[in-house]
Design goal:
The chain is of the alpha/beta class and 133 residues long. Helices cover 53% and strands 11% of the residues. It has a single domain (3-119), classed as 5'-nuclease (Rossmann fold, 3-Layer(aba) Sandwich).
């Protein structure tokens, strides 16, 4: 497994938006995962969607290929370090994004996201940057 897929990319994939569909098809052979945080964010969207049955079926199909990585004590310690360091620098980002970043870092994964504004602030985080312009 090489890639952690962020919530924004999963949403785009589930909505069959390019380039997310093309990029995930390209990355799938190397192994993909999502954070438990992304799982919760996607399920929030499903539960409050006008087309919740379709959305849930699509997400469950996606999960056939993507592993869901849990939160644990090591991730929470990494989260605390990242959060404190960013706050100290006045560059804070939201907690779910920090938890996703900590998950990627501790599992040695490249994060696939379009949210470069927030995730570029996290030291040592590898971010997939081959998005078409």
């Amino acid at each position: 497994m090489k890639y952690l897929i962020d919530s924004d990319v999963v949403v785009d994939y589930l909505d069959a938006r390019q380039p997310a569909t093309d990029i995930l098809a390209l990355l799938l052979p190397d192994g993909i995962a999502i954070s438990l945080i992304t799982y919760g964010e996607i399920y929030e969207g499903i539960l409050f969607s006008n087309r919740s049955v379709y959305a849930e079926v699509a997400f469950l199909e996606f999960l056939r290929w993507a592993r869901v990585l849990p939160l644990d004590e090591a991730i929470m310690r990494r989260f605390a370090g990242i959060r404190g360091s960013l706050r100290r620098k006045g560059m804070g980002i939201n907690d779910p994004d920090i938890l996703i970043a900590a998950t990627a870092l501790l599992n040695d994964l490249t994060l696939v996201t379009r949210n470069l504004k927030h995730f570029s602030r996290v030291p040592d985080l590898r971010v997939f940057s081959d998005w078409p312009s």
